[in-house]
Amino acid sequence: MNDEESMTTPVASLLHKVGNSPTSANVLLKAKTAKVSGKEFASKGAHESLREALARAQRWQQQMSVITQAAKATQARMPRQDSHPNPSPKELAGNVTYDYVGHLMDVGAGNWTPYVKQFCKSFLVVDPVGTKNRTSKKQLRQVLRDRQDMFMPEGFALFVKAITISQDYQQTAVFSSMVVPSANGKMEEFVDRTDFLTIETRKNKNCISSLKTYWSTAGSLLRAPVSVQHQTTEDGIRNYLRALHELGTNQSFDYFSQFADNFTVHDPLGMPPMTSLQELQTAIPELAKLLAPQGFTVDVEGVTVAANPEYGSAHLVLHFIGGASVDIIDIFQITSQGKVKNLKAVWHIV
User: Fold this and answer.
1) Residue 135 in 3-state DSSP?
2) Of the residues 40, 187, 253, 271, which has the fewest C-beta atoms closer than 10 A?
3) Which residues contact 11 (CB under 8 A, 6 or more apart)?
4) What are the strands, taking DSSP E only, across the chain?
5) Cis preceding linkage at 79, omega within 30
């Protein structure tokens, strides 16, 4: 793939927007974070983190020829895809998510209108998971107002670390850090979060039909205490990621002991789920062999736990030894024993 061709991909178009659009992430981030905290480091850091994540995703796309066999091997498990006119479903998903990030930054700067308008006529927002379902725009405005009054009176800035798209292009995820300045401006709280979007494609407008976020005030903001289940979930997620790394580096097969007796795994999300160890023990090594014949390593970039502490998320970077690296955002449900009950790995092979 040459440079000109690469700019036709959704990731490349996002990179182009970041660097060149008058309403790019650079402009958005500078405007929002300057208004929120008055500090240059927030806008610079957020801009660079978004560019880094998108650049990594672009490098991953440019090496797709290496994993063509993996795509063929998994084709039988994938839902049938109908043909679509341009722009492609992947481009639409990327564009809606990119816009969502900008509108979330608007919220941090005190402007809720663009954020509220991006949802479909019928929608569900659970922000964060463990709080009430919001199904009307009036409810959205009220919760945003209450949240600002309670623990974000100065708004917040946003560092975007990764944007990922599911295999069927219907769901996306954003991993980021909120920077919440104190009222006196002398300190900031950093709160990691994952935003999990379901996108509805329409003729006249693409919109968000579902949004679930994974973060909490535990240990920060309101100084809410960390519950036993909160710690169990965080430890369970980290144990899973450690075991995945050991599987990729041929150190152990402890990965297959990370699951509850009854579990569901979507990896990647958008393909039919796996619900037995036998399926995992067949599919995971086969996929790893095709994608990463020399093995892979895992870097954990961040872990979050939701307000309902059974749920959490992680941003990891999967490095194929001798090949590409790819951002993955995992969404978990963890049992009281620290085992994985449900896993949605938001990324895509092709």
Assistant:
1) coil
2) 187
3) 54, 57, 58, 61, 94
4) 119-126, 157-165, 171-181, 188-200, 207-214, 259-266, 296-305, 311-320, 325-334, 340-346
5) no
Judge whether 163 and 172 are in contact, CB under 8 Å. yes
- What is the amino acid identity at position 20? N
Calpha distance 286→224 (Å, rounded): 44
pLDDT for 37-80, tens place per residue? Answer: 333 334 445 555 555 655 655 554 554 444 444 444 444 444 44
How far from chain centre, in Å, is Cα 109? 22
**Quick count: other Cβ atoms within 10 Å of Cβ 250?**
8
pLDDT single digits (tens) 215-252:
998 877 656 789 999 999 999 999 999 999 999 999 99
d(CA 37, CA 101): 18
CA 66-326-32 angle, to 5 degrees, is 140
- How many angstroms separate the CA atoms of 214 and 222, rounded? 17
3-state secondary structure of 329: strand
pTM to 2 decimal places: 0.79
Q: Cα angle at 336 between 330 and 341, to 5 degrees?
A: 40
Both tokens of 339, joined, read: 């085992």
Alpha-carbon torsion, ordered 303, 308, 311, 316, to 10 deg: -20
Half-sphere exposure of residue 236, counting CA atoms within 13 Å on the CB side?
30
- The bridge status of strand 207-214 relative to strand 188-200 is antiparallel
| Count of C-beta atoms within a 10 Å radius of residue 35 | 15
In this structure, the strands spanning 157-165 and 340-346 are unpaired
Per the DSSP assignment, residues forming a β-bridge with 297 are 319
CA angle 79, 85, 88 (to 5 degrees): 60
